[in-house]
Fold each of these.
Amino acid sequence: MKIVVFGANGKVGHRVVAELLQRGHHVRAFVHSRSNLLPQHDNLEIVHGDACSAQDVTMALDSIDVAMSTLSSWKSSGEVLSTWASLVVNSAHATPALRVVSLTGSAVLQPKDHAAWYDYLNRVVLRIIAPRVFHDGAQHIDILASSSLDWHVLRSPVMRVKPSHTYQLSTHPPLPWQTIPYDAVARALCDIAEKPRVEHRTPFIVPY
């Protein structure tokens, strides 16, 4: 498959690129600035652009099977995820078979989640300390859900640089103290991109 990775020079993004290349995919790495984290590879194309630019996003989606986002609003002044999602949906007429795989935090809950009281407390805390980040993650899910695209959003707890291990996808949020390796999140995103059918649209990733 030919896959574009938005945010490819980030902590998750460069790991996703490496994993996809190892699996034999053709990867278009969409980056905002130069990065030394990306490898040199015959199947890798690096393009520079702005994930909030309609022109740049439309060009990045040309001849693509899967659009993957590892973008984040934490260090941005704008709503990066929701803007990106809107641009992808608006470009869908040119790529109706496009699969979209995105990433956000586990505090963004959905109505059918099997959430406990402490999960709602975790959401309240995030809405207090980072309201823009929380709103951006939630809104980008709503935008994708309103489209006709084949979309999935992986919801992750805090990510750490630590030895990788197996993971599972669940409708139950991770426990408040649980963390997950960056490498496990990268593998999960790639697995979702490859699977012909994924049971849940917005699974949580939890350690296994």
Note: The mean pLDDT is 91.
Amino acid sequence: MKLLFYSLVCFALLLVLCLVVYAISFSLEKSFEDKGGSFECGFQPFSGSGFTFSMPFFVISLMFLLFDVEILLVCFYPLFYSFSFYSSLIIWLVLFFVLLATLFEWFKGVLSWV
């Protein structure tokens, strides 16, 4: 029984070793120069891949996510819970924090380009 177990373990290790050697040899054989280049739907890129990151676009996308979550909280919260003093307080707190965050961004100059 031990002989069968040891032979299966040796076979499994040999198989893993063969697969690793095959993968390494295949990756070294196919080292193209285009692996590090950008990919645009199968065509050659029109310009270099060193574009600068657009910070205003990033800020707008974050604000969109913030307001999207705020709309979900404000609009759908009363549908799932009974509308009481506490639920209206939570809605007003969410609106207050969103307004406070928007004013903070505005005074810090993040929204100066808008």
Note: DSSP finds three helices and no strands in the chain.
Amino acid sequence: MSFRQTRWRFLAVSLAALILLGNNYSFDNPQALQTQIQQQLGINIIQFNLLYSVFALPNIFLTILGGMIIDRLGVRFGIFTFTLIVTIGQLIIALGGKFNQYSLMLLGRAIFGVASENLIIAQSTFVSLWFKGTELATVRYSNLIQAMGIIMTVPELGGALNSLLTPLIYNSSQKLSVPLFVSVGFCLFSFCCGVVLVYLDKYAEKYDQRCEQQV
């Protein structure tokens, strides 16, 4: 039996869901802090909305490139790289909030955007590797449904937590940078989950190779 068919796959799927927790928590940080961002940085509504535009624009073309990178260099490379870039992007956003640098926040959002959608592609590719073949459509179809439920639920939890916690953290600290750095912490947690996931998938590959050699 393949390692990917054992109960370990549900740990793998849980980790795959958690790699998007930081991404989804951080994505709507600006929305939860709109008034504070506009007042502290002295920007208008058009400039505020640019924080979302620079996130979306790279994904018009770069998701195709991201798919090619994952196809050529592997899903493990994609998960590690894109979770790292998401974390770096959010760190730059937080530094922009700390030093009241709107341009730095724009740069961070653009970097964040480059990796965000590509990370979803890497996640989907990973799940298809661990739930593949006839299992996707026949006797263990319910396992796939459970896996997809986990994949869909955990990232949405990140968005809900942002809407709940970010305003509370700002009200407690009265500093724009504090909730933004909390988001960095969430992204760092997701990056660590990605590192564990990469190791687990690499172990699964070696395990299956040893089994094939013994047959």
Note: The longest helix spans residues 177-214.
